[in-house]
Write a structure and sequence with these properties.
- It is built from nine helices and twelve strands.
- With 273 residues, it is α/β, with parallel strands linked by helices.
- Strand 7, helix 5 and strand 8 form a beta-alpha-beta unit.
- The protein is globular.
- The N and C termini lie close together (7 Å).
Length: 273
């Protein structure tokens, strides 16, 4: 079964408004990145109790902890990242979330990513070992500017770590922004590692994120592929539509993104919860 979730902090800073919009769209999960004006890893234990109480009143659950782990320069010290992962694991367990989103480290401008391959692989392997110990699953996002921003470098990391505790959060829009075609290039190499999807599309010419199916992200073919493999998992709506719809506020932009995804799924006869 396909399960819809989303980065609710793109709706609003206010948890109550986040939950209202999710419920209005029939979405019963959120990807927790920030709330109460702070990143998820900065939440106090008291704020986590408050958050759990608010979630229980709406039956909205947490699909993944949207941590910033790995979204730092590769030259920065690594020890703080290990502590952050342990905190993220604790938060995930408190919120009954199976996944933690991570990245593969920013590479210095104007330098070759391969110069940092060894350090990236070493760090990602250590993060994966902690995930194995904590019995949680890391989702590596193919974000821009990090080592794993192309299909080949994502594959290198995933093969090196070789663990069910490090999987891929496949992001078609981010691949487009890095001039990788999501279906014709990335998917054939990475499909066996795909466990979670970030739903955003992008127009390569304007370098702008757009609703799913309206850009160069090959979303129609992607949805067909998910149907063919009987994919069961989360589709996480991450709109990033502030440039495409500058006149709209966060709630409206999120609804535009959610409804675009639903149309694609309906066109393929796919059900979701």
């Amino acid at each position: 079964m396909l399960v819809l979730t989303g980065f609710a902090d793109e709706i609003s800073d206010r948890l109550e408004e986040q939950l209202d919009v999710l419920v209005s769209e029939g979405i019963s999960y959120l990807e927790l990145r920030s709330v109460y004006g702070k990143n998820v890893l900065e939440l106090t234990d008291e704020e986590l109790v408050r958050l759990k109480s608010a979630l229980s009143k709406t039956s909205v659950r947490v699909s993944s902890i949207g941590s910033p782990i790995g979204k730092y320069p590769i030259q920065d010290p690594f020890a703080p990242e290990l502590e952050k992962l342990k905190r993220a694991s604790d938060i995930a367990k408190q919120l009954d979330a199976r996944y933690i989103r991570v990245f593969s480290y920013y590479i210095p401008d104007n330098e070759e990513p391969e110069n940092y391959r060894g350090e990236v692989l070493s760090r990602m392997k250590m993060l994966t070992r902690i995930a194995e110990e904590e019995h949680i699953t890391l989702l590596m996002e193919n974000d821009s500017g990090v080592y794993g921003d192309t299909d080949e470098r994502c594959l290198s990391i995933l093969q090196h770590c070789d663990s069910p505790c490090l999987r891929l959060a496949f992001d078609p829009g981010n691949f487009v922004m890095n001039r990788v075609m999501p279906m014709s290039e990335a998917y054939p190499q990475l499909s066996t590692y795909l466990e979670y999807v970030h739903i955003k599309d992008a127009d390569q010419q304007s370098r702008m994120f757009v609703p799913a199916g309206e850009g160069d992200g090959e979303f129609s073919a992607f949805v067909k592929a998910l149907k063919e493999r009987s994919f069961s998992g989360f589709l996480s709506i991450e709109p990033h539509l502030h440039r495409a719809f500058p006149e709209q506020e966060g709630p409206e932009r999120f609804k535009i993104a959610a409804q675009a995804l639903k149309r694609l799924l309906l066109n393929e006869g796919l059900a979701w919860s």
